[in-house]
Design goal:
Layout: H1 3-25, H2 28-53, H3 61-76, H4 79-85, H5 91-94, H6 100-122, H7 127-147, H8 149-152, H9 167-185, H10 188-198, H11 200-205, H12 210-236, H13 246-259, H14 264-285, E1 288-289, E2 294-295, H15 301-316
Antiparallel strand pairs: 1-2
Helix pairs in contact: 1-9, 2-9, 2-12, 2-13, 2-14, 3-6, 3-7, 3-12, 6-12, 10-12, 13-14, 14-15
């Protein structure tokens, strides 16, 4: 096992242990931010697997997040709630109620299955073609959710999902996700992913299948996107089709690109930076008294500042804050 992976796993374990003590010292507001941050790290890291390590820039990841949330929500709703909210649900689903963990894993598996079907034609594409095509997949998923009222309540809010995602639970899921993705990325399979990203012709010349390599990353990423979607739903308790559409996609892409697409640590850094800045700027929007001057409310200023920051980072660090490096590699040569 490489030194880098040992350090990453050690840090992840310390983070998980800290999670058990944090609820005792962190306010409810702070816990909400941390939980959403953990879920965002899962979603951004899953997106980065295909986008950053194979060079296939997919815009359809939010479609898998939506599928994960709805599948897990349907499976975990109580039988009574299903009778009330989803009276037309097929019998084989109406009588089933799963716990959060099996429902989450099954939701991830469903997303992986869908990714194989969708990825077989789409992963043959490259460049902006695959981006547009995967965005089309996200739009199709949204349209299906809105129109499949028997399963999703259509455009109405899907509610009644058990809300049992606490800070320690979210941290554990995040640690497991990062550990598994790190194990994959820094293995011979990860080397194949990066080879396909750097030069598809050279990768094919040494016997690598570009389609299979891309499809593997796309499928694994979809699994964890489904897991993140399930956790998202089980934290909020209520959501709609609009929850998983363009605004969420843009937010995740900003976090991914800002942190660095070719780095697992970049996902964490991107989420931390964007979340912290959003919260700070949101408070400043309300105005403040500095003693010598009163700053009036500047509604919408947070989005403007974040947009400007994103532009500056793309100009001066187009490969993101960490580029292709992990946090554990700083201070070492090579």
């Amino acid at each position: 096992m490489s030194r880098r992976l040992v350090l990453m796993l050690g840090g992840a374990c310390l983070l998980a242990l800290a999670g058990w003590g944090l609820p005792m010292v962190v306010s409810d507001y702070g816990q909400r931010l941390l939980i959403m941050g953990c879920i965002s790290v899962i979603l951004v890291a899953s997106m980065g697997l295909a986008n950053g390590f194979t060079g296939v820039f997919s815009l359809g990841q939010v479609g898998f997040v939506a599928i994960g949330a709805y599948v897990s929500g349907i499976l975990s709703l109580s039988v009574a709630d299903k009778a009330a909210y989803l009276p037309d649900l097929p019998a084989f689903l109406a009588g089933v109620q799963m716990g959060t963990v099996p429902a989450t894993l099954l939701a991830g598996a469903v997303c992986a299955g869908v990714a194989v079907i969708v990825g077989l034609p789409l992963m043959r594409l490259s460049g902006h073609h695959v981006s547009v095509a995967t965005m089309g997949f996200m739009i199709i998923v949204n349209s299906v959710i809105v129109n499949a009222e028997s399963f999703t309540r259509g455009a109405r809010t899907f509610t009644g999902v058990p809300t049992d995602i606490t800070l320690p639970v979210a941290l554990i899921w995040m640690v497991i996700t990062l550990a598994l993705l790190g194990r994959l990325i820094y293995s011979p399979i990860g080397l194949a992913l990066r080879s396909v990203r750097e030069d598809t012709i050279a990768a094919q010349a040494v016997g690598l299948s570009v389609l299979k390599t891309r499809l593997l990353a796309f499928t694994v990423g979809a699994f964890f996107a489904g897991v993140g979607g399930s956790l998202y739903g089980h934290y909020l308790g209520s959501f709609s089709a609009q929850t998983f559409f363009f605004p969420l996609m843009v937010s995740l892409i900003i976090m991914l690109v800002l942190g660095g697409m070719g780095s697992l640590s970049g996902a964490v850094v991107g989420v931390v930076v964007v979340t912290a800045l959003s919260e700070i700027l949101r408070n400043l929007e309300r105005g403040m008294d500095l003693g010598f001057v009163v700053v009036p409310p500047l509604f919408g200023a947070s989005q403007v500042v974040l947009g400007l920051l994103f532009i500056l980072v793309m100009i001066y660090r187009p490969r993101g804050l960490l580029e292709d490096r992990e946090l554990t590699s700083f201070g070492r040569k090579g």
